[in-house]
Amino acid sequence: MPHNQLSIASHRYRVSWPALALVSATFSALILLHVTAPQAWVLALILVPLAVAPE
């Protein structure tokens, strides 16, 4: 990923890196749980906009 694009994305959105890491870990867990707990995606749709909110 070009560093310039990353900088633009970080500037445009209020990205908390610990929150971003948590979201990534959450999605990884959701992929593993998807077969047995598809309703977990509803939580992801709620939590992701809270973690990565437009400025």
Write the layout of secondary structure elements.
Elements: H1 3-12, E1 13-15, H2 17-33, H3 40-51, E2 52-54
Antiparallel strand pairs: 1-2
Write a structural description:
The chain crosses the membrane at residues 20-52. Keywords: Membrane, Transmembrane, Transmembrane helix. By secondary structure, this protein is mainly α. The relative contact order is 0.18. It is elongated. The chain has helices at residues 3-12, 17-33, 40-51; strands spanning 13-15, 52-54. Helix content is 71%, strand content 11%. Helix 2 (17-33) packs antiparallel against helix 3. The model has no long low-confidence stretch (mean pLDDT 70).
User: Which strands sit side by side, in order, in the main sheet?
Assistant: 1-2
Q: Label the overall shape.
A: elongated
Helix percent band: over 70%
Q: Calculate Rg over CA atoms.
A: 13 Å
- Our estimate of the beta-strand percent is 5-15%
How many structural domains? 1
The pLDDT mean sits at: 70
Structural category:
mainly alpha
- Sheet with most strands: 2 strands, antiparallel
User: Secondary-structure element sequence?
Assistant: HEHHE
- pLDDT < 50 runs, ≥5 residues: none
The total strand number stands at 2
- Determine the N-to-C terminus distance: 22 Å
Tally of helical runs: 3
